[in-house]
Amino acid sequence: MAEEIQKLVHLIESLAQDKKAGALVVLEVGKVSLIADYFVIATGANKAQVHAIADQVMAGAKEAGYALLHREGYAEALWVLLDYGSVVMHIFQPAERDFYNLERLWSHAPRAGMTNVQLEREN
Question: Where along the chain do its domains lie?
Fold first, then answer.
């Protein structure tokens, strides 16, 4: 089960990067909460890019056999939430990401994912 969740996290990261998602962060919220195992947080520069990222993730995850349980905020595209159960993706426009600052709110959750591994290797 944990391996399947990791695969979904990496898939979501990769799909978001395909659409040039900015400031991609993965938080292992399951270490500090029961809400989910992981949050994948990304930024889109505008409504069109937020839609492009969300559409790419939804299509790629569906193709890989992952069911989207809930989608929120897509019409406005200021903050889109894609809920895959154990993995929840948040896609923000810049002002909303700064305002809600999930990384600060969940600062006690360890960082994870491919992006974090790359940063550790660079340091």
Answer: 2-122
